[in-house]
Amino acid sequence: MAVSRTPWIILALSGAVLAPRALAQSRQPRIVGTWRAETPDGPREVVIRPDSSASYGEETVRWRLMADSVFLAFGDEWVGYVVAFRGDRMTVSGGDLEEPMTLRRAGPATPRPDSIPIPPAPPMARARLDGQRGHLR
Fold first, then answer.
1. I need a labelling partner for 2 at 20 to 30 A (CA). Which of 15, 41, 63, 120 fits?
2. Is residue 23 assigned to a domain?
3. Does position 106 have pLDDT exceeding 60, yes or no?
4. 19 within a domain of the structure (yes/no)
5. Over the stretch 49-68, which tens digit does the pLDDT of each residue have?
6. Residue 22 has pLDDT above 60, yes or no
7. Closest Cα partner for 49 from 29, 66, 69?
8. For residues 37 and 101, is the Cβ–Cβ distance under 8 A?
9. pLDDT reported for residue 101
10. CATH number, residue 56
């Protein structure tokens, strides 16, 4: 009894075509994760989650990624920071920082506790870049 190989070849080829698309859709932005930095005030940790929330210390904010910048919502204003990645390091500059800060990836993002809501985002429809790079109003 001869078994036709055609169905197996079609199945294998369809898997090879569909798998990369499924992987691309399941990928999270590179910025998502737990990041640590050594500062003059001691170590700091930032958790950037795929649900658009970011936490550091007791503060939780919303974030948006656009090109080479991450924007954080502080109240009714978006503050933008330029981000650059190299290996397991992320360098953040601009916004309200006086000098660039380098953070090291410490692991995946920890879940946001249900008791901590994601703050509302300022309207993007009124958002525009002002004269200073890194500020979105």
1. 15
2. no
3. yes
4. no
5. 999 999 998 999 999 998 89
6. no
7. 29
8. yes
9. 94
10. 2.40.128
Give the pLDDT mean for 112-132.
Answer: 69
Nearest residue to 132 via CA among 91, 56, 62, 78: 78
Residue 107 has a pLDDT of 97
Structure tokens, 85 = 């990645």
Is 130 inside any structural domain?
A: yes
Q: How far apart are CA 58 and CA 25, in angstroms?
A: 32
* Closest among 122, 78, 95, 97 to 37, alpha carbons compared: 97
Using CB atoms within 10 A of its CB, is residue 46 exposed (0-12), middle (13-18) or buried (19+)? buried
Amino acid letter at 4?
Answer: S
Q: With CA atoms as reference, report the closest residue to 103 among 92, 118, 117.
A: 92
Domain count for the chain:
1
Q: What is the pTM of this model?
A: 0.71
* Residue 30 DSSP label: T
Give the residue numbers spanning the domain of 91. 30-136
At 2, give phi and psi (nearest 5°). Answer: -90, 135
Round to whole Å and give the CA distance between 56 and 60.
7
- 136 pLDDT more than 80: no
The total number of residues shown for the chain amounts to 137
Question: Is the confidence at residue 9, as pLDDT, over 80?
Answer: no
Asked if residue 6 belongs to a domain, the reply is no
